Amino acid sequence: MTPDLTPTPSPIAERVFCANHPDRETTLRCNKCGKPICVKCARRTPIGYRCKECVNQHQQLFETAQWYDLVIAFVLSTALSAVGGALVTALGWFVIILAPMAGSVIAEVIFRAMRKRRSRYLPWIAAGGAALGGLALCALPMLALVAGLFVGDGSFMNFGSLLRLIWPVVYVALCASTVYYRMRGIGIN
């Protein structure tokens, strides 16, 4: 008997579609659960690509903060930002250099007060507290400026008074953003 030399047809590769986007063909799979995922759904991790659900399950393991930790972080950042802002904004343009330093100190104090517990909401809460504490500094010069417009003869409205109002705003922007990014580096993305 002679062997059959006719070529056998190759099996047609089965088309696989993303589990979340059924209209997108993909070759990627989550390295944990094996679910097919498209490029939009894939999350890069140090050990490979994973689906959003597996990444979220893994991150929940690291949520160690209690509700009162977030309250402590808000109160600390508000108080420290108000004190730091009162000191820093009195120095004029040095606020550009000193506000990020104040933000770093605030983030470190919060991190130590929470005993290194983590939360994905911590950066937002800490930055919000820092902004609120700094905005108290903006309120006083703003009220004085408005009072000078309505009560005074207009002589209060000069370049120096406007410049005094700018430094607290610069402080709030730099300090709150520094607190946010420092806490985000410590916390969960």
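Above is the first protein from milestone M3; the second protein from the same milestone is given next.
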Amino acid sequence: MTHSKAIQGSGLGLRRDIMSQLASSLPNTVDFMEVAPENWINIGGSLGRDFRALTERYPFVFHGLSLSIGGPEPIDVELVNNIKSLMQQHNVTIYSEHLTYCSDGGHLYDLMPIPFTEEAINYVVKRIQQVQDILEAPLVLENASYYAAPAQEMTEIEFVNQVVANSGCELLLDVNNIYVNAINHGYDPLEFLRQLPGERIRYCHIAGHYDEADDLKVDTHGSNVKAEVWELLHEAYQLFGVFPTLLERDFNFPELSELLQEVAMVKSIQNKFAQRTQPVAS
């Protein structure tokens, strides 16, 4: 089965925990899917065939975990080339990553905050452009959750906007991360949202978080989406029009039917703004 390269509508992150259920039911509430490409490079056998069957059925995007765009070590060119090859094999046109770093003499197994400084902007922009030259396409970067802001010289929104403007990359808007960061760092999530470059949004993530305390939220992707985050998605569509939006769930999986209810909620909200819906071209 062939499909358009464009993604639109409501998506679901594909995890191996739910792969067999998805393969057997092929839900039509899901318009596109997302995987970490690192988990699928050189994967063959029955798992590789199952993955191929899904990429032939649904448009996919890749959301990487280990590029370390802000890291101190050189860009892993072999990794980027392998991801580019995997994109070509599965007709994937979007590769997104996190505006963070995750390596320093080895993998840190966490997404660390890049200092909000002019020096960091210049450094990251050069690395983004190196990746984009290899991909021959824009890199899509996610506004990340963070719990400390070392050596901060500017606000998060100033940092994100300058990186996007200076590098030519695109934005993966994560509304849950905006909400989590706003609570943890004491800013207005709607004001942050309003200042983003809406024309650079390629697609969106929505996810659940853990309420550690009134003033401490943890971005877990392990629970249902909170009402405040759904409201922020409404506001984003109100500001920028409808864009493709994907539900992330990384662990503590409920029944597939419950996940699909949240995907259906995305679609329901999108339908309220249907007059503004524009498919995202590749």
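Note on the second protein: The radius of gyration is 18 Å.
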